[in-house]
Every structure is written in structure tokens, then in C-alpha cells.
Amino acid sequence: MGIYFDNAGTTAAKPEVLEAILPYLAQQYGNASSIHAVGREARKAVEKARTQVAAAIGAKPEEIYFTAGGTEGDNWAVKGAAFAHNQKGRHIITSAIEHHAVLHSCQWLQKQGFEITYLPVDAQGRVSPNHVEKAIRPDTILITLMMANNEIGTIQPIAEIGAIARVHKVLFHTDAVQAVGAVPIDVNALQVDALSLSGHKFYGVKGVGALYIRQGVRIDSLLHGGAQERGRRAGTENLPAIVGLGAAIELATRDIESHVARLTKMRDRLIHGILTAIPHTRLNGHPTRRLPGNVNVSVDYIEGEALLLRLDLAGFQASSGSACTSGSLDPSHVLLAIGLSHEAAHGSLRLSLGDYNTEQDVDELLAVLPAIVQSLRDMSPFSVTS
Ligand code: PLP
Question: Which of 240, 266, 293, 356 is least buried, going by the fewest C-beta atoms within 10 A?
């Protein structure tokens, strides 16, 4: 299958996760709302997973609501907060580099009469807490800022912004889809009111996630129907996926400090290797306040898509932006927001490391990447052959 450097896109479910899930597909297949024995077993499994998710982020089990992934969690938090608080005001603060699950939710709300402030970021992708504070108005009802960016890996000063939000009594949501399982998280230290996470980013399965909603915080429901999730999110619980989410988050957070240390070392060696071996390359994002597994570089005088295809042929899977936008020829909104030109944004390469990557993977990539880049530059009419 080659060497996989696209762990920010998705990850492989771990054997322990599969083992946890399997019985719930065919033997213990109950509906968690049924009151008979099979249903009660299912309910027990869902509640165990809720406890596992809560423990991983410092929350209480009753503050965890299962969703169908990060996109649903973001839509729910943003739209649900907007509609729950529109008596107080209609102003929302976000940033220019959010995932489309947040940005497009905000754009949809604009059409419903809400007003959105899209904060800029600095050249390394950081939102300034000062800018956040200045943007708060009497009618501000929500601040939604991602904890870590999916493309450039920059980690935001969420705890500082959380403190500001609390002082001004504005609800604060963070999209932590890339951060959960990658860095330690405690919802109380961060002072967030809502946090979305997604199972397939930390070796669970796709199509399941959770939204943390702090006790007492009002967020309207998006899905109406049955009384599941304490009446806040209708739909029969996705039992096997939820069980897998619980197992995956427990595994991912158990030894998180050593995961962080291992990946950070590998990441920094990869960045250094690329920047020293290939001329006209630059790191995108913050040099240290970035996800342990994230490498994003601009490679001048090439097309990112062409580089991806050549890497794929050589057996390496990477990405040139977020997986969700590949297929579109628009340059990444994140790279444009940190000040890259359209050309530079088109020539970006994201390599995201995960638990299954080894130092040898890094060596193998560094052994072929300079020659691949050079051969693409040799074909490019814009090239200044190094
Ligand atoms: N938010 C961020 C930061 C992401 O990286 C992603 C997925 O890449 C999502 C939200 C959407 O999550 P999901 O794929 O679970 O819908």
C-alpha cells in the first residue's frame, strides 16, 4: 500500500478498536433505546463510550453527545448556538482559516440574517486573542475558533481566548477535530463551552464523533425525531461506531505525551530534511505551535497536484490541502489567509504523520522527494532550475 503520510485526512482503525466494535455488529446489535435485555446491553456500551470520551477531554459524561462526525458537530454547535441565542444578538466571531464545516455554516447563517466577523490570522496562522476581544460587541453570541488547523497544523491560543470569552459572557466553541488525540485537551483548562471531535482522525471509524456541550449551555438541536441523546440529537445511536470511538479515544489519550514527543521529533526531522535538501521551499504554519504530526511546505515552481501524483506513483500518500477540498482547483483559503500568493498556495504539500509512521518512512521519503521535485521543476516553464 505504500507509505501513508495523510493522517490528517483520515487514519486506519486500530486492531483494538476493531476488536471492540465487532461484537456490536452482529451479536450485541441492540437498539440502545429498547428496554429489553439486548437493548440494555447496547445502552451500557453507549454509556461506557460516553464515559471514555468525557474522561479523555476532562468533561462529565452527561456533557457528551454522539454525532455522525466532525461536520455534524461543527454545524450543530454553530447553528444551534446561533438559534438558541438570537434573542440576545446575531453577531458571531470566527476566523478566516476555519474548516468548511464551520465556514459554510457561518455563511449559511449570514443568509438567515446573522452577521459574521471573520478574523484574520498572522503569517503563521495564529488568531490574536487581542483581535478576538476587540471584535466582541454587545450583540455577540458566539465565538467559534478551531483548536488546530487541518492544513498547516497551527495550534490556536484557545485557553487565552476562552478566558476572554468567559469574561465577556460569550459562548465559545472550538473545532478540535484535528487536536483530539494529537495533543492533550481539558475543556475546563481551555474554558470552552462546546467542542467538536471526530473518530476517524484518531484511529476510530468514519462517520462518528461527539459534541461536548458544557452543562447548562443552551444549543438548539439540529436533528429532530426520537428522544435519543437526552432529547438533543435524534436518531438511533450508531452503536458499533460509538463503541469504537470510546476505545479509540481512550487509546489515543492514554500515552499522549509520548505520542507527542515521538511525532514531534519525526516531524521536525522531516521539515529540516525538506528545507535543507530542496531549494525554494518554506514551512507553512507555526514552527513550534503546530500539531505534532503536521508538515506543510510550499514548494515553489511546481503544481501541488502534480507532486502528489508523482509521490503516489512512488508509493507515498500525501495531500496538497485538506482532503475535503481536493478535487477543487481553488487555492486553499488557509494558505491565502496566511499571505501566500495563489501560485505558492498551489505548490503546497501536506505530509501528516501518525502512529504507524516510522523514522524509516521519513528516510525513504527524503531519499526520493528532492529528485521528484527537481524533475517537475525541469518541466515547468516558470522554473529557475535551482
Ligand atoms: N474540522 C476539521 C478541522 C477537520 O479537519 C475535519 C475533517 O477533515 C472536519 C472538521 C470534518 O470532520 P468529519 O470528517 O468527521 O466530518
Answer: 356
